[in-house]
Amino acid sequence: MTYGMPEETGSTGDPFGAPGHDPAMQGWTEADRKSFWAFHEDRHKLYLRFAYLELGSDGDAEEAVDLTFEKIMGCWRRMLGMEHPERYAWTILKRRIIDQQRARRRRPEPADVAAFEAALGDGADAYEVLTGTIHFYTAVRRLSERQRDAVVLYYGLDCDTRETARVMGCDEGTVRSQLRRARARLLQMLDAPGHPHGDGTNPHGDGKVRA
Fold first, then answer.
1. Over the stretch 12-51, which tens digit does the pLDDT of each residue have?
2. Fewest CB atoms within 10 Å of the CB: 2, 46, 186, 210?
3. Which pTM does this prediction carry?
């Protein structure tokens, strides 16, 4: 981690009481520092989980998230004046993940693809049309960026629509719309000709057509 974390307790008992010695914080008010570390505390773990699903490596995920917060720290005071600072922070994270992918000269690998299978339905038998996680993961990667983000956060990381909207910097209606479109697109791609079970039949051979 390259940015300065605060001490656990300040002299007044305030967990954010320590000023932090990172040069990027020079000139910050106490309110600036408190708001930054509160944001860090709120998002760090979720950002790390998201980065891991995208990169498939603990080390790469940690580096991407550290660089994300280093960048956020550098422009935090400007972000405080933005209408949607959460959206800006999310964009920074996405760019750092792309940088990591390019630096490692590799495509993102599936980490826990089974979690995404929930996007196909509400516990329905539709999952059984999948012969392997690779086909599903490939379909997820073909979604639009906003749809994929919504699917990863909502299904992969078990965020509700409110939290997903908060992280992405949009409203809940937008998240619900993206999830509906993602589900429709996934079902369309997985039912397309050329998929092992593109005819929609049960892979177990009982002849039933899945909804």
1. 334 444 444 577 888 899 999 999 999 999 999 999 999 9
2. 2
3. 0.71
Beta carbons of 112 and 199 less than 8 angstroms apart:
no
- Look at residues 2, 8, 87, 19 and name the one whose alpha carbon lies nearest to residue 41: 8
pLDDT at 43: 96
Separation between Cα atoms, residue 64 and residue 165, nearest integer Å: 22
- What is the residue-wise DSSP string for the chain? --S-PPPS--TTS-TT-S----GGGTT--HHHHHHHHHHHHHHHHHHHHHHHHHHS-HHHHHHHHHHHHHHHHHTHHHHTTSS-HHHHHHHHHHHHHHHHHHHTTS----S-GGGGGGGG-SS-GGGGG-S-HHHHHHHHHTS-HHHHHHHIIIIIS---HHHHHHHHTS-HHHHHHHHHHHHHHHHHHHTSBTBTTTT-B-TTSS-PBP-
Amino acid identity, position 16: F
Q: What is the pLDDT of residues 101-129, one digit of tens each?
A: 888 775 555 445 545 555 555 444 444 44
For residue 170, the model assigns a pLDDT of 95
